[in-house]
């Protein structure tokens, strides 16, 4: 007998194994009990046949409650109808902890109840599938950059200044000084790009944005590459290559999870094919006005406008060259029209909104100094950032991608609260 994970069982047909896990569900029929056991790697039907097991094994199986922890010993048998294509003929069963009155039952529960019990809700089939997709996406991101020679740089979470303005910062005391939870690792990546050429960071970011929309969290994870000597057109190519490869990877490796989520994968397949539509901001305004939107040049786009722009092709759409005044202070002006920035937002289809925001960065010391002044930012907090232009200035570009919105899009979810293990929202800090 050997210990085995459920995911390994199709390769162990005919062998005797021990599986450790939790009772997900059960049903009985006369002298048969069908135990659905989960161990984190999959779900297994374990069959207890009364005439072939000791009386205690039968009685223990009868009294098991949902989410009781246990282990079962038996022979792996092929059964195409069972989860994973195999089932276990049980010989032994031992209860580690008998569980009764588990709060989350197969019946319907309200969102508030499920969120209050998020620590338990994570065990459900749906949440299990979502976290598996997230896991695959995160691994694919790291592999994408590793294969291309990027160096991982861990940017600090506690920072002395804002990256994109102070209105959405979480402030904290840092031994008598003001400190803030990071909105982005980008500013700290730019010096690292001067050291390594191609770098990225991947970690939690925080926005104190008082929003209750289905797209917003107070704490989320973001991946941000930064590349020395990269100009704006190359940045667009990198973002497009990045997203198309990630979508293809998830479609290939998460088929079972997407099926469990009832995701219509035909709606994702166009995103695996390049190129993506690229629309100048001015043209996007004209398109929206033609569709009856009241948006004017100089306005930022809301959710309805983003959806209208992205749903024409079924692919993500890249909106470029926004007015500089609605973008961050560090973005390089368009040389053809300095009132606009060399900036891009990638909008996912099906109403999932912006998943990437990026730009070429200002490389001129004088211009960056001017922008810091114009945005009323504290000069002393950005002296180190100005040093990047003071000592060996170079053109460089980068973008940020929020993981949760991408997971929501890939899984076809209505709200980002299910895309992260413990969501932090406007009125939720528990559990």
Automatic annotation (TrEMBL):
Family, as annotated: Belongs to the class-II aminoacyl-tRNA synthetase family.
PANTHER family registered for this protein in UniProt: ASPARAGINE--TRNA LIGASE, MITOCHONDRIAL-RELATED (PTHR22594:SF34), ASPARTYL/LYSYL-TRNA SYNTHETASE (PTHR22594)
CDD domains, per the entry: AsnRS_cyto_like_N, AsxRS_core
Reactions this protein catalyses: tRNA(Asn) + L-asparagine + ATP = L-asparaginyl-tRNA(Asn) + AMP + diphosphate + H(+)
PROSITE patterns, alphabetized: AA_TRNA_LIGASE_II
Keyword Protein biosynthesis: yes
Compartmental location: Cytoplasm
Record InterPro entries: Aa-tRNA-synt_II, aa-tRNA-synth_II, aa-tRNA-synth_II/BPL/LPL, Asn-tRNA-ligase, Asp/Asn-tRNA-synth_IIb, NA-bd_OB-fold, NA-bd_OB_tRNA
EC number: 6.1.1.22
Domain Aminoacyl-transfer RNA synthetases class-II family profile: 131-431
Subunit relationships: Homodimer.
GO annotations of cellular component type: cytoplasm
Name of the protein in its database record: Asparagine--tRNA ligase
Domain of life of the organism encoding this protein: Bacteria
GO biological process, one term: asparaginyl-tRNA aminoacylation
Species per Swiss-Prot/TrEMBL record: Thermoanaerobaculum aquaticum
GO function term, MF aspect, one: ATP binding
UniProt keyword terms in alphabetical order: Aminoacyl-tRNA synthetase, ATP-binding, Cytoplasm, Ligase, Nucleotide-binding, Protein biosynthesis
